[in-house]
Amino acid sequence: MTVGSGLAPQLSWTPRCQASDVLVESVAPGSTTNWRVTMLDASNSISSPVAFGDTLPGALNSGIVVPLVAGIQYRAVVGRTDSAGHIVLAGETSFTP
Known about the structure:
Blueprint: E1 2-3, E2 10-12, E3 21-26, E4 33-39, E5 50-51, E6 59-61, E7 74-81, E8 87-95
Antiparallel strand pairs: 1-2, 2-5, 3-4, 3-7, 4-6, 7-8
């Protein structure tokens, strides 16, 4: 998984499988979810790359997008829905814009 530069980076992953959940959160204690998008029907329909803060068709954004702050460390996570309907980790990385 890779994260582009800036405060509204692109998130991409390889192999370019489709995902059902993408999350960006602070890694500080008491972490904040800055942005999360989850497919409403649990389908693996999110294609790489996606831009931080994007609203995707058929997906639910979890609340307000909390802007990234330069110099703070974050974690980006991509999940896929398995055949049992559970979201499983497909990739993750830490980054500092």
